[in-house]
Design goal:
It is a single chain. The chain has 234 residues and is of the alpha+beta class. The protein has three domains: 41 residues; 64 residues, no CATH class; 60 residues, no CATH class. It is built from eight helices and nine strands. The strands form three sheets. Strands 6-7-8-9 form a four-stranded antiparallel beta sheet, with no helix packed on it. The chain has a three-stranded antiparallel beta sheet with strand order 1-3-2. A two-stranded antiparallel sheet has the order 4-5. A hairpin with a 5-residue loop joins strand 7 and strand 8.
């Protein structure tokens, strides 16, 4: 098979397109994906020479999907590409609980993990460094995957267990109220005016408070387990 001489082919196409009408050239430009590279180049030059603002269609158009008729099965959805390897899907994690103290947050996280639900604590490092900022930021946040929200809430709404075992922490017994032995206890929230002043100044302001509070009998006590009043003073 003889090879095509590019110079002679270019001259032939120049003469061919020069004899075509404007409408014929526009039609050819709409199917430029079927032309050779030399033909597209010569066609573009001829269109520019005539001042025709016509764009060459160099990619074959995708045919439209066939219409869905009554009784036909619905079309399959396009495949979902998996996220890049190593990319954290934090966008799918939602906050379901907020805690004022770390032991309470660890208890909830351990309850979910023991049920096979992946849970993540955020802002827990802040409470280890500065308890004032933890309260100002809304406390420690417990997050689960969007698909596990209903199951996680069902587990957390169950009666409080006596303790839990979580990876890296070991056995943690849930604190009890020394007055009524209830497990529904937590740290009392900081005095907010004092916390705001302390955060603004950047230095801790000493004040006295009762560390634990029972939500059943409303007793309050410090780490020594002796119930006391709810009053606190700076």
């Amino acid at each position: 098979m003889a090879m095509i001489d590019p110079a002679r082919e270019r001259q032939r196409l120049l003469e061919f397109y020069a004899d075509q009408l404007d409408g014929e050239l526009e039609k050819v430009a709409g199917q430029a994906y079927e032309l050779t590279e030399i033909a597209r180049e010569v066609l573009g030059a001829e269109l520019a020479k005539r001042g025709l603002n016509v764009k060459l269609v160099e990619q074959r158009p995708v045919p439209p999907a066939p219409p869905v008729l009554p009784g036909d099965p619905p079309p399959e959805p396009p495949p979902v590409e998996p996220p890049p390897e190593g990319e954290l899907e934090l966008r799918r994690m939602v906050t379901i609980r907020q805690f004022r103290d770390l032991p309470e947050a660890l208890l909830a996280k351990g309850s979910l993990e023991s049920a096979g639900i992946e849970a993540v604590l955020t802002d827990d490092n802040i409470v280890r460094l500065d308890w004032f900022w933890s309260n100002l930021m809304g406390g420690i946040k417990l997050k689960v995957d969007l698909e596990d929200v209903a199951a996680a809430n069902e587990i957390l709404n169950q009666p409080i267990p006596d303790g839990f075992d979580t990876a890296g922490t070991g056995e943690y017994p849930q604190p009890r109220c020394p007055s009524c032995q209830s497990l529904d206890v937590s740290f009392q929230e900081l005095n907010k005016p004092v916390a705001y002043v302390s955060a603004y100044l950047g230095v801790p302001i000493p004040f006295h408070r009762r560390a634990w509070r029972c939500h059943s009998c409303h007793a309050e006590w410090e780490e020594d387990g002796v119930p006391g009043s709810a009053d606190s003073s700076i």
